[in-house]
Amino acid sequence: MQPGQLDNCRICGKLFLRDHTDYCLGCYKITEQDFKLVSDFLSNEQNRFATIEEVSIETEVSVKQVADFIRDGRIYAEDYPNLGYRCSHCDKMIKRQLLCDECFQQFSSEINQTLKRENLVDEIRNTQNKHNKQNNQAKNTNMPQYWQLKK
Q1: pTM to 2 decimal places
Q2: Where is this region: Disordered (predicted)?
Q3: pLDDT value at residue 143
């Protein structure tokens, strides 16, 4: 969607004029306040080793919102040894993307196998279609055509 168009807020669903965010002004302000709370909490040296659950409890910002800050790159989890969120598939602790490397590799190989199977099926169909066309052409050359019978 382009800037300056009407859209629904990703958080509350309210209709708003979209500029630079996916949120209406009210939700944007709340999100920024939450980010400031989390950022201030993590900037304190004694909180450097906090987990995402501890950050959530101390700042009263949801775990999902903190994970979104990390995923969006607003918080660099590599700077905090225990800060991360769960892989969407296996629940392993990760610091970037949606899937851990193992799940990503597994899904990638499954997708590649599926694509290879689909390509093989397409090739078989194409070969069958060519064979059927050749058979039909051979049959048609042996049979008299309407315009040939008219002579």
Answers
A1: 0.67
A2: 129-151
A3: 58
Which SS3 state, helix, strand or coil, does residue 20 take? Answer: coil
Q: Which neighbouring-strand residues pair with 126?
A: none
State whether residue 94 is helix, strand or coil. strand
Give the containing element (helix H, strand E) for 139.
Answer: helix 101-142
Task: Dump the DSSP string for 21-71.
Answer: SSS-HHHHHHHHHHHHHHHHHHHSGGGTT--HHHHHHHHT--HHHHHHHHH
Going by their DSSP bridges, the two strands 6-8 and 15-17 should be labelled as antiparallel
Which of 9, 81, 69 lies closest to 34, judged by CA? 69
Angstrom distance (rounded) from CA 38 to CA 47? 11
What's the 3-state SS for 72-89? CCCCCHHHCCCCCEECCC
